[in-house]
Amino acid sequence: MVARKCPWRGLGCRRWITFTEVVVPVAVAHIRAEARHLRALGWSYRRIARRLQARHRLGALVAFRLAHGWTQEEAARRWNERWPGRGPAKTGKTWSYWESWPGKGGRAPSATVLSRLAELYLCRPGDLLDGPDFGELDAGADGAGDRSAAGCSCEAGAVGDDDDRCAGLLSVAATLASPTGRDAPSATAIEARLAEFVTGWVPAA
């Protein structure tokens, strides 16, 4: 509700008229629709949040909330329903403080809060923190494996996250590269296997 001057004020009217302003968050509605679409394709909430972070330059806490399609008030309601009577009830304003951090006016969520948010958003607490990955400065490898496949940095036989399907592709490539060729799968089998890797794939804008 916003109070504005009466349009007849210039003719001597001293009243103030109250107008109702309805602001339609088009951008947020678009992001929620995108999240629903990706979820329908079978994407995990973590994968959706990462996509929203990269594509819309969102903070981690905002991205994970929108990945679920929730407003700040809806997220607060779900928290209060899940942990009733444990401390003061959370509100949309509480979420605003957390999501604004470390910016001006924000409040840092505690380790306990991050743990519960992770449970609410179905992710790890560390996923909810923004910042650079200093592990990239480590010259050591995260694990042993054959990384000789051209253009592929994943490990053969490793189990990655939703975005890492190179291991499966490497197994197919290794079979096709067999010198004897006796174990090579049929064209139908290859197409079926490749279909598993591209299911739910959405091209980047």
Q: What can you tell me about this protein's structure?
A:
It is built from eight helices and two strands. The radius of gyration is 25 Å and the shape is globular. The protein folds into two domains: 26-130, no CATH class; 146-194, no CATH class. With 205 residues, the chain is mainly α. The model is unreliable at 1-24 and 144-164 (pLDDT under 50). It has helices at residues 26-40, 45-56, 60-67, 72-82, 92-100, 111-121, 166-176, 187-198, and strands at residues 2-5, 16-19. The protein has a two-stranded antiparallel sheet with strand order 1-2.
In short:
This protein has helices spanning 26-40, 45-56, 60-67, 72-82, 92-100, 111-121, 166-176, 187-198, and strands at residues 2-5, 16-19. With 205 residues, it is mostly helical. It has 2 domains: 26-130, no CATH class; 146-194, no CATH class.
Ordered list of secondary-structure elements with their pairings:
Layout lengths: L1 E4 L10 E4 L6 H15 L4 H12 L3 H8 L4 H11 L9 H9 L10 H11 L44 H11 L10 H12 L7
Antiparallel strand pairs: 1-2
Helix pairs in contact: 1-2, 2-3, 4-5
Low-confidence blocks of residues: 1-24, 144-164
- What would you call the shape? globular
Order of helices and strands: EEHHHHHHHH
Largest sheet: 2 strands, antiparallel
First-residue to last-residue Cα separation: 38 Å
How many domains, in number, for the residues?
A: 2
Q: Average pLDDT, to the nearest integer?
A: 75
Helix content: 40-55%
Beta fraction: under 5%
Give the strand order of the largest sheet, numbering strands 1, 2, ... along the chain. Answer: 1-2
